[in-house]
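The pair is quoted verbatim underneath.

:::
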Amino acid sequence: MARGDAPRDSYHLVGISFFILGLGTLLPWNFFITAIPYFQARLAGASNSTTRILSTNHTGPEDAFNFNNWVTLLSQLPLLLFTLLNSFLYQCIPETVRILGSLLAILLLFALTAALVKVDMSPGPFFSITMASVCFINSFSAVLQGSLFGQLGTMPSTYSTLFLSGQGLAGIFAALAMLLSMASGVDAQTSALGYFITPCVGILMSIMCYLSLPHLKFARYYLANKPSQAQAQELETKAELLQSDENGIPSSPQKVALTLDLDLEKEPESEPDEPQKSGKPSVFVVFQKIWLTALCLVLVFTVTLSVFPAITAMVTSSTSPGKWSQFFNPICCFLLFNIMDWLGRSLTSYFLWPDEDSRLLPLLVCLRFLFVPLFMLCHVPQRSRLPTLFPQDAYFITFMLLFAISNGYLVSLTMCLAPRQVLPHEREVAGALMTFFLALGLSCGASLSFLFKALL
């Protein structure tokens, strides 16, 4: 919802632009992890003429490189690092350079990944080049995401939610691109090339959308505002949203992300003698208020990244070889996870349970650790220690449904509850802390994936 005196977003062009930009920020990560079988086939020594994006035995006879573990770790460590460096980068590098430079760098690195499909290369150098690309791409993606969130701070909340929706659909988009490339019927090399060219087209569209923003009157109106004016406008927008919601809970997924950030009607009451905003809020004081919620966020992502995709991508169908076994992992692992994760995040639009004062939240978060042994005991052909207790496909699909929807719901819930636990002027610090702990959880999970893989 825009202010009454603001220009109209003609044909919703600004909204569409931010949706595509959101999609572009998470396309790199999702396209790399969805193509894990392709990379493992290359690292197993398959020639370009026989390399497939997906092979039935997609873990390969040898997985000496631990590709799925390393790609997860080297994707998340840059996020943690650049979350810490954000304040420095914001002061030293202009916003346009950060956003446009990051998009161009990601485009070039993905073009390199696509070009390597046609290059005959031994596994060692191919692994090194791919890991360097993963690290640099995710470093630029972290800068890009942080910079775009900074821009969205000056826009009405609906545009932030459109951006988040684009991010949420990036994984679904990557999984569908994988399935289409597999079903295309062309030779394996052409299929792989087409798959990796797809995100290049997505990044090009993101660049075009960003370059178009200065030429759209609606975007110029908000992006040119001073921070204080933009903050006042955002407060006004949140007040309008709150008036249209029932019981303080947004009535649609498009409102949830930022309505709760400034839920003025559910504010923690300050004591009469408490100073209202005296200088910068203390990070330590804010941390004392949200530490349990932040710990829950860390644990949610630690569990998720410790097995997805490092363990889940190794699970194969127990049925006889055929079409279903070929499409099993892209559908039941990646597509199913992304759809259910997105649905889980949307549930917080309709209810928030348990609330910030309940001790049930830590219990629910800790229960998710059960998914680690459950996935490790599914049908993973390459194992030497643990038995297979859940060989049927139905077990894996059931575990993945619960795993994904609980991940999406608990992540969204913790991010919604944290701002409700602090005073208004402390919410920016709380948001920054939660972003840091989010990245910390991702990195911890990626590191633990090596241990769980070794235990198989």
